[in-house]
């Protein structure tokens, strides 16, 4: 997923032409998988399986599960954002300062 598209994730349902069909399927699957009551159906899982193949789908599932686990553990311990995103956001290449070689 392109870096510029990451900013659109919260608005992905309203954004048209930003995400590929595969990206939309993966986002929908991840959201269904990480709900307090998971809502993954066979039909929902079939789209990323068909596009990625079973080995990559298993890897996707494990990655989503790991990130969900991290989020839940952080929440249980009361850990909050350290503000890194505000200080370390990746800027587009045009906005980066140039350095002399």
Structure notes:
There is one protein chain. The protein has 101 residues and is mainly α. It has one domain. It contains five helices and no strands. Helix 2 crosses helix 4 and helix 3 (42-52) packs across helix 4. It is globular and about 40 Å long. The mean pLDDT is 85.
Write the layout of secondary structure elements.
Elements: H1 3-6, H2 21-34, H3 42-52, H4 54-76, H5 84-88
Helix pairs in contact: 2-3, 2-4, 3-4
Tell me briefly what this model is:
The chain has 101 residues and is mainly alpha-helical.
Radius of gyration: 17 Å
Count structural domains.
1
Structural class: mainly alpha
Characterize the biggest β-sheet.
none
What would the principal axes of the Cα set say about the shape? globular
List keywords for this structure.
101 residues, mainly alpha, globular, 5 helices, 56% helix
């Amino acid at each position: 997923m392109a870096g510029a598209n990451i900013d659109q994730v919260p608005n992905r349902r309203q954004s048209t032409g930003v995400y590929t069909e595969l990206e939309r399927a993966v986002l929908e699957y991840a959201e269904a998988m990480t709900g307090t009551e998971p809502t993954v159906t066979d039909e929902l899982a079939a789209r990323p399986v068909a596009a990625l193949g079973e080995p990559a789908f298993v890897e996707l599932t494990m990655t989503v599960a790991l990130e969900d686990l991290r989020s839940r553990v952080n929440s249980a311990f009361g850990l909050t954002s350290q503000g890194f995103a505000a200080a370390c956001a990746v800027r587009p290449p045009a906005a980066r300062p140039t350095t002399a070689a």
